[in-house]
């Protein structure tokens, strides 16, 4: 049986920034307008097969409310990827992303950052005006060494691409190591820090 590798992914962002809808669409292929706000954090797992390896994404969806902010460090500890969600119709949500970038860079420098603009359907359907300009986010991502996506959880647009890119980047930054008398194979991250599970 092929060994499974685990990758811890954390979602951070302001309340109502679309984190839970993004994960729900990815895991269950469904969408609800009435998705309740996360309390504390929610956990889910998605097993995928990529580049000839079994990879299990351990996904932590953190609460966006200010009162839970202090708890978030507990959930992003040892994460190798962070999806920072912002609502493209809400400038304040993008300001919050910058806060989380600073927190992650200080606490988890090996954590790769992915900025995810949500609710693209509201713009395309002219329900609400765009407040966060794509060029602004792209320039910011260039400065922090991150990636940027604009998504619609309602339509499913670009949702899979976010997680596929995360998985691909992780595999590229890992090396295959053969161990044991039976030639068991595992992946080892190139970071010099200690690895820990989710």
TrEMBL record:
SUPFAM superfamilies: P-loop containing nucleoside triphosphate hydrolases. PROSITE patterns: RAB, RAS. Signal peptide: none annotated. GO terms for molecular function: GTP binding; GTPase activity. InterPro entries: P-loop_NTPase, Small_GTP-bd, Small_GTPase. It holds the Pfam family Ras. Keywords: Nucleotide-binding. PANTHER family: PTHR47978. NCBIfam families: small_GTP. Belongs to the small GTPase superfamily. Rab family. This is Ras- protein Rab-24. The gene is RAB24_1.
């Amino acid at each position: 049986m092929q060994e499974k590798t685990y990758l811890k992914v954390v979602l951070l962002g302001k309340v109502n920034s679309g984190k839970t809808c993004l994960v729900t669409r990815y895991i269950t292929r469904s969408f609800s307008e009435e998705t309740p706000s996360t309390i504390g954090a929610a956990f889910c797992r998605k097993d995928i097969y990529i580049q000839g390896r079994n990879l299990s994404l351990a996904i932590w969806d953190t609460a966006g409310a200010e009162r839970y902010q202090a708890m978030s460090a507990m959930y992003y500890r040892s994460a190798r990827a962070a999806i920072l969600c912002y609502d493209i119709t809400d400038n304040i949500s993008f300001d919050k992303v910058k806060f989380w970038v600073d927190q992650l860079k200080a606490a988890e420098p090996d954590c790769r950052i992915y900025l995810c603009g949500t609710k693209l359907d509201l713009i395309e359907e002219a329900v609400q005006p765009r407040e966060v300009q794509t060029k602004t986010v792209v320039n910011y991502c260039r400065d922090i060494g991150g990636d940027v996506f604009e998504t619609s959880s309602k339509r499913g647009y670009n949702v899979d691409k976010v997680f596929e890119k995360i998985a691909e980047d992780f595999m590229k930054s890992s090396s295959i190591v053969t161990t044991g008398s039976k030639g068991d194979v595992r992946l080892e991250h190139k970071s010099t820090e200690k690895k820990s599970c989710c």
